[in-house]
């Protein structure tokens, strides 16, 4: 039985199922003050200095940024992450990435196989589609951060 691909949180990133797609995180931008929000804000501008009267419009965020900070998770995360308490635990790497164009930091997991030893503050990374979990009916999709140099090395091979 084929699994249906479903985003963990609808509207936070583009669908990654298309050929050669341009996978992106999706934020919102206030038309009155140009503030950008991620996670997206669809109700009101959170900028206390906004003059008001604007709309919040969906905007794709930069695909690349620089590592601002990183760490590893050596514990089983709480919901919505799914973890079998009887399965062996593998630590995962979390990366905080500064998107210069948006003047914000976005947190996410590193791509599978990327460890803290593979990262450095200031390193360029890009957002790539990822899988959070699979169950009998669904593949739950998310985003990951991957070092650009690793992607470029794969392209050359």
Task: Explain what you see.
The protein contains one helix and nine strands, in the order βββββββββα. The strands form two sheets. A five-stranded mixed beta barrel has the order 5-6-7-9-8. A three-stranded antiparallel beta sheet has the order 3-2-4, with no helix packed on it. The C terminus is likely disordered. The chain is mainly beta and 157 residues long.
Provide key terms for this protein.
single chain; 157 residues; mainly beta; five-stranded mixed beta barrel; 1 helix; 39% strand
How would you characterize the largest beta sheet?
5 strands, mixed, barrel
Q: What is the multimeric organization of the chains shown?
A: single chain
Structural shape: globular
Helix share bin: under 10%
Any idea what the radius of gyration is? 17 Å
**Percentage of residues in DSSP E strands:** 35-45%
- Tell me the span between the first and last alpha carbons: 33 Å
Low-confidence stretches: 151-157
Number of strands: 9
**How many individual helices?**
1
Q: Class by helix and strand content?
A: mainly beta
> pLDDT average, as an integer?
88
Q: How would you write the strand order of the largest sheet?
A: 5-6-7-9-8
Order of helices and strands: EEEEEEEEEH
Q: What's the short version?
A:
It is built from one helix and nine strands.
Q: How are the secondary structure elements laid out?
A:
Blueprint: E1 4-7, E2 26-30, E3 36-37, E4 56-60, E5 64-73, E6 92-99, E7 104-110, E8 124-134, E9 138-147, H1 148-156
Parallel strand pairs: 1-9, 7-9
Antiparallel strand pairs: 2-3, 2-4, 5-6, 5-8, 6-7, 8-9
């Amino acid at each position: 039985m084929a699994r249906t691909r479903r985003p963990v949180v609808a509207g936070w990133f583009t669908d990654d199922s298309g050929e050669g797609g341009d996978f992106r995180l999706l934020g919102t931008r206030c038309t009155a003050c140009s503030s950008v929000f991620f996670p997206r804000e669809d109700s009101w501008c959170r900028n206390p200095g906004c003059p008001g009267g604007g709309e919040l419009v969906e905007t794709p965020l930069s695909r690349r940024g620089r590592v601002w900070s990183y760490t590893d998770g050596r514990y089983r995360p709480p919901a919505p992450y799914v973890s079998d308490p009887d399965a062996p635990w593998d630590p995962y790497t979390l990366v905080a990435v500064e998107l210069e164009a948006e003047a914000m930091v976005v947190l996410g997991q590193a791509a599978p196989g990327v460890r803290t030893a593979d990262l450095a503050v200031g390193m360029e990374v890009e957002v790539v589609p990822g899988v959070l979990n699979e169950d009998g009916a669904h593949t739950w999709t998310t985003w990951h951060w991957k070092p650009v140099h690793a992607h470029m090395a794969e392209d050359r091979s």
